[in-house]
C-alpha cells in the first residue's frame, strides 16, 4: 500500500519547512530529498519496473510506499556570468535535472506539480496566450529583439525578462525586475542581442497575488504604507509591504482555478493587477513562493499538506 510522501526541495526552502511541520502534526510519513544533499545518498531508479530506492545512513526509502510527490524545487542549469561552472558541475546539474523529470515514471502517484506541466507553465508567452484565450484581460505585449515599444499602442510601457534571471559577477548576484522604461532607453544596437518583453503599462494599479491549491484560492492585495505600488513590488523590502485579504469576483476566482487546471497544475501562484475595476492577468509561477503569506487565516501550508495526504492520483 502506498503510504509515504516524497518531497523534492532545497535545504533553504522555508515553505517546505511549513508543510513538513503540518505533515508531522498529521502523523504522515514523508521523505524530504534536498537537491543540495543528492550526493549523500545512494539513489537508484528503475524506470522499467517503476521503483525508486534511496539509501543513506540509518534510512531507507522505496516507491512501494509513495502516494504523493511534491516537485517543489526544480533544477535549472542557467548561465551565471562571473562564475565559471566547471565541467563536473555542469554535468551534475544537467543530469540531476533530467533525473527529477524522469521521476514522471511514477504516474500513479499524486504530483504537485507534474514536471511536464511545470516546465510548460514556465513559458511566459504561453501563459499569456492561454490566459487571453480563457477570458482573462491581458496587457498588450510584444516580445522583440528590436524597438518593440513601437509595436504596442500604449505610449507608456514596461520591460521584463522572458525568464527568471540570476546573474553572478564575482561575489555579487543580480536579479531582473519589471521596470518602467522610455523610448530613449533603447537603440536598435542595444536590443539586438536578446529578446525583451515590452508590455503595456497599467496605470493606477493594485497588485494582487492569488495562490491556487486545487479548488482553494487565497487572494491578497499587496500595498506599501497602505498605498498601491506603481512599480514592481518585489523591489520593496518585505517589512514595508502589506498583504491584506481581498475578495475577488466569483468569475475571477473561477478563472484562476480553471486556468491553473488547464495548465495541468494542482498549485500555482498567479499575479493579477486591478485597475479601474478591471482585472488583468500578469503571470503564473508553478513553483512560486507563498510562505510569507501564511498566517492563521491563510493556512496555505495546511492546504498543501492536505493535498499531499488526500490528493487524487494523476491517472
From TrEMBL:
MvdD-like pre-ATP grasp domain mapped to chain residues: 5-74
GO MF annotation: an example: ribosomal S6-glutamic acid ligase activity
Alphabetized Pfam families for the sequence: ATPgraspMvdD (PF21068), RimK (PF08443)
InterPro entries named among the record's database cross-references: ATP-grasp_RimK-type, MvdD-like_ATPgrasp
Positions of the ATP-grasp fold RimK-type domain: 193-308
GO-annotated biological processes: SOS response
Gene3D superfamilies, sorted: ATP-grasp fold, B domain (3.30.470.20)
One of the record's GO cellular component terms: cytoplasm
Name of this chain's protein: RimK-like protein
Amino acid at each position: 500500500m502506498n503510504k509515504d510522501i516524497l518531497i523534492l526541495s532545497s535545504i533553504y526552502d522555508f515553505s517546505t519547512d511549513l508543510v513538513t511541520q503540518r505533515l508531522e502534526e498529521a502523523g504522515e510519513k514523508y521523505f524530504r530529498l534536498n537537491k543540495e544533499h543528492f550526493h549523500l545518498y545512494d539513489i537508484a531508479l528503475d524506470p522499467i519496473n517503476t521503483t525508486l530506492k534511496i539509501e543513506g545512513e540509518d534510512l531507507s526509502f522505496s516507491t512501494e510506499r509513495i502516494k504523493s510527490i511534491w516537485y517543489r524545487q526544480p533544477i535549472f542549469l542557467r548561465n551565471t556570468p562571473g562564475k565559471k561552472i566547471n565541467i563536473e558541475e555542469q554535468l551534475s546539474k544537467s543530469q540531476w535535472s533530467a533525473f527529477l523529470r524522469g521521476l514522471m515514471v511514477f504516474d500513479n502517484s499524486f504530483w504537485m506539480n507534474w514536471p511536464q506541466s511545470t516546465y510548460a507553465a514556465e513559458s511566459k508567452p504561453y501563459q499569456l496566450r492561454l490566459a487571453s484565450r480563457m477570458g482573462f484581460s491581458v496587457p498588450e505585449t510584444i516580445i522583440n529583439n528590436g524597438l518593440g515599444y513601437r509595436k504596442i499602442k500604449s505610449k507608456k510601457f514596461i520591460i521584463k525578462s522572458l525568464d527568471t534571471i540570476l546573474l553572478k559577477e564575482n561575489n555579487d548576484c543580480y536579479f531582473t525586475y519589471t521596470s518602467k522604461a522610455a523610448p530613449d532607453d533603447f537603440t536598435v544596437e542595444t536590443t539586438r542581442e536578446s529578446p525583451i518583453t515590452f508590455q503595456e503599462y497599467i496605470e493606477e494599479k493594485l497588485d494582487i497575488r492569488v495562490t491556487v491549491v486545487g479548488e482553494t484560492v487565497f487572494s491578497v492585495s499587496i500595498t506599501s504604507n497602505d498605498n498601491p505600488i506603481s512599480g514592481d513590488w518585489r523591489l520593496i523590502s518585505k517589512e514595508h509591504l502589506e498583504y491584506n485579504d481581498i475578495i475577488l469576483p466569483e468569475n475571477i476566482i473561477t478563472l484562476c482555478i480553471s486556468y491553473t487546471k488547464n495548465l495541468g497544475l494542482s498549485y500555482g501562484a498567479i499575479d493579477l493587477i486591478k485597475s479601474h475595476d478591471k482585472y488583468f492577468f500578469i503571470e503564473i509561477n508553478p513553483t512560486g513562493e507563498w510562505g510569507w503569506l501564511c498566517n492563521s487565516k491563510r493556512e496555505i501550508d495546511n492546504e498543501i499538506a492536505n493535498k499531499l495526504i488526500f490528493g487524487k492520483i494523476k491517472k
